[in-house]
């Protein structure tokens, strides 16, 4: 039986999602719990994609196969008893045998949170990047609009990206201002390595006047990581939702 | 010159506010920083009151005396460079030589946050108590109303309380429901040891039907800690605001 789970995690104390020898990872934590439940038999989980160290998730999705006769809705209770309190399986359901958490993704939404308070606030230190500057939100929104739609995002992906086809479609980039924080909502059909963090970093540099909104067009055309802005820090980023 | 500071801290990694030998405390962290700035001369800080291990503060207030010729508004910047990122001085101003952060308190507001989601959410694990039950908010509000005003709060203070006069005036207890969380706002002219946590714990037991709202009257009359409900955990509690 294939089980599809939605999981949330605070990335602060994880060395990222993907299993790494000798490091605490989200995947490792869940696979260990599943293997315990399966009496020591190793159980692989497959997620919608990786997240880096420090990156959070509100609604990451993974699947696994089991031959245990456990009602799907019981899996959150079983797993949450065995995993750390900084990761929680929110829901589980039976999926078809052909469902694949990575290959079947239609769209994902990421959010990037920026706190613009003059003082770095203790409660936000792991959950929003501190950027105590005045920003021009309208300029940022203009720049964001240039990034929406289908583009080659080579300039907005890590130079280490090995994928050849860097054309992706961004459905929207919304910038919301709420109680001293900016929330960048980015939804698209696929994301390259570091793409949302580079978009957020670049938009902040539009906001502070280093770049003009139109400069973003030249950055896209350049197809060169060096042409775009900085990579914003990991701890402001959330994998918010995965849609199938 | 006497300086009045407002400070916020995430209590998770502190062994409470008050200095304790060999433990990391908020007071110890700030006094160390101030002593560094004063070239090794010890500087005592005096807060509005203590908070226990795990308890948070949005607006704790303390004062200290200095003979350094530093503009008052510079103190947050100076101190925040030297203290951990889980504590931040939000503002500072010059106060009169007779101002006293503890003796001059007129009222304080505490908040207690309860998360009622079925699953314990990773991002709330240090910042709200998890109480995954259906609660009767109207019953809780009725019970809270009985606690408002001037009463002897012996039943709502730790049995270890040494203070003789346990009469305090509660200006209000408001219960707000917001996005899967309950926020208890309690404002009064003074609080006994554990008082807000016992009020929160008791109100939750009214909410789940263990007690009726009127039972709270009998608890007050009993003047006995054993008569009231449980002490709710520290990590849901915030010293929100101190008024002078």
From TrEMBL, chains A, B:
Keyword tRNA processing: yes
Record-linked Pfam families: PseudoU_synth_1 (PF01416)
Keyword list, A-Z: Isomerase, tRNA processing
Stored InterPro entries: PsdUridine_synth_cat_dom_sf, PsdUridine_synth_TruA, PsdUridine_synth_TruA_a/b_dom, PsdUridine_synth_TruA_C, TruA/RsuA/RluB/E/F_N
Domain of life the protein comes from: Bacteria
SUPFAM superfamilies assigned to the protein according to its UniProt record, in alphabetical order: Pseudouridine synthase
Active site: 52
Any one biological process term the GO annotation gives: tRNA pseudouridine synthesis
Catalyzed reactions: uridine(38/39/40) in tRNA = pseudouridine(38/39/40) in tRNA
Pseudouridine synthase I TruA alpha/beta domain sequence ranges: 7-104, 143-244
Single GO molecular function: RNA binding
Binding sites annotated in the UniProt record for substrate: 110
Top-rank EC class of the record's enzyme: isomerase
Cross-referenced CDD domains: PseudoU_synth_EcTruA
EC number: 5.4.99.12
Role summary: Formation of pseudouridine at positions 38, 39 and 40 in the anticodon stem and loop of transfer RNAs.
Family, similarity comment: Belongs to the tRNA pseudouridine synthase TruA family.
Quaternary structure, from the entry: Homodimer.
Identification of the protein by name: tRNA pseudouridine synthase A
Organism field: Jeotgalibacillus malaysiensis
Taxonomic lineage of the native organism: Bacteria, Bacillati, Bacillota, Bacilli, Bacillales
Name of the coding gene: truA
């Amino acid at each position: 039986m294939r089980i599809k789970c939605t999981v949330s995690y605070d990335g602060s104390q994880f060395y990222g999602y993907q299993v790494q020898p000798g490091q605490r990872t989200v995947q490792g934590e869940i696979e260990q719990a599943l293997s315990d439940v399966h009496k020591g038999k190793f159980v692989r989980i497959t997620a919608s994609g990786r997240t880096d160290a420090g990156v959070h998730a509100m609604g990451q999705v993974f699947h696994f196969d089991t031959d245990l006769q456990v009602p799907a809705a019981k899996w959150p209770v079983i797993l949450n008893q065995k995993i750390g309190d900084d990761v929680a399986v929110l829901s589980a359901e039976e999926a078809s045998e052909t469902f694949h958490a990575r290959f079947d993704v239609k769209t994902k939404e990421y959010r990037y949170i920026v706190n613009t308070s003059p003082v770095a606030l203790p409660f936000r230190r792991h959950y929003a990047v501190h950027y105590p500057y005045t920003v021009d939100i309208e300029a940022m929104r203009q720049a964001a609009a240039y990034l929406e739609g289908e583009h080659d995002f080579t300039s907005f992906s890590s130079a280490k990206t090995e994928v050849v086809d860097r054309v992706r479609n961004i459905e929207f980039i919304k910038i919301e201002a709420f109680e001293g924080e900016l929330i960048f909502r980015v939804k698209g059909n696929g994301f390259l390595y570091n793409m949302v963090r580079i978009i957020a970093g670049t938009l902040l540099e539009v906001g502070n006047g280093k770049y003009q909104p139109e400069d973003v067009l030249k950055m896209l055309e350049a197809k060169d990581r060096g042409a775009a802005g900085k990579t914003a820090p990991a701890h402001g980023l959330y994998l918010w939702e995965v849609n199938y």
